[in-house]
Amino acid sequence: LLGTGTRGAPRGAAGAGVAALRRAHTAGTVVVACDIPSGVDADDGSAAPDAAVVADVTVTFGGLKRGLLLHPGAAHAGRVRVGDLGPRYDPGETTWDVLAPAGATPTRWDAATDKRGRGTALVVAGASGTSGAAALTASGALAAGAGLVTAAVPATVRTDVAAGADPGVMVHALPADQQGAVDAAAVHALPNLDAVDVVVAGPGMGYGPGAAAVVAALRRDARRLVLDADALNVHRDAPEALAQHRGDLVLTPHERELARIGGGSDGHDAWTHRVERTPALARSLDATIVVKGPGTMVVAPDGRVWVCPLGGPELGSGGTGDALAGIIGAAIAVADDVPLAVAQAVWWHAAAGEVAGRRAAGRATATSLLSELPAVLAGLQEWSEHPGPDLPWDAWRMWQPGRAPTDVGRAGLPRSTAR
Known about the structure:
With 419 residues, the chain is α/β, with parallel strands linked by helices. It is 33% helix and 14% strand. It has two domains: 12-89, YjeF N-terminal domain (Rossmann fold, 3-Layer(aba) Sandwich); 120-387, UDP-N-acetylmuramoyl-L-alanine:D-glutamate ligase, CATH 3.40.1190.
């Protein structure tokens, strides 16, 4: 009904047409949108409530539009196919993709791979009252495939973390302050960072002077570093310091944390403008940024952007972000392409959350999510060897219209780039 340049709710005859198409879709009629469902903003995916077409299939022309990937636009698009108009599409310096199952397949280890070959991870997290965050982060790293995982935590919670984490996690005590958080002296008590492939820091850590000192030391010395939660919050007064780091850096903010690291004046502002601001922020910090929320974005410093088509309210449970930080750490520990590995980890986490949510009426927990992760990884490997329209077990019949545009988005295919 309307083209890609329109904004806001359709009015007049176009509005009446949208209403008729919505009624038809509700009644079971298959709706195919051309280029983009009318009422969806092609640039940012916004859609006026109850005033945008809901399609089963969208055939878009020339290249993907960002609005088909981002929430809530993706929920209106259904399955997405890209039609060829002839001339090759130039996406510019920023490319947008949906990571489909083919792009999310985990590494298959060969017979000679030992635990160090799978990657060593150090988790620096936790404090009195938040020992569970450290336990979930470390357990997430182990479940996602890291061969050796050590949790470095304040001495006051060492026993609690050891009891709460997977038994395969080793625990290292750090000096604690009077509040039970990490002390600045912990800078000198960290394990040898040159012997660690990746460090994950922040969950439940607190953002006092001790945490700030430790995170600064990790930025200086870690070969690969994932900063989550409080490890982001310690930069709220000087976010530009995040640009100073030794190795590969991954940041995992939700909307309020995104604002604190330079993405906006507050959470709402940062979320509203994430599409245009986050690629520039990733370049300026030389970091991969995971913008968590509906349609989680993974933004690489080289201009690549992936949008995760999975995940929903089942991930809105305490601890799921901690688990994600650990999963990302495991994924990038020995990866050749760090941003792509981050995007894969986000997909694994969201898929495991959906499976766990289906088993619990949408009420997944971080623990139930991690319990589903091995089946997710195994299913992806099986699917990669015998691909089909759906993943190979009933619990994963989740490819409903608006949830996963599986026809596009295999990493690296030019046809799945969007402006």
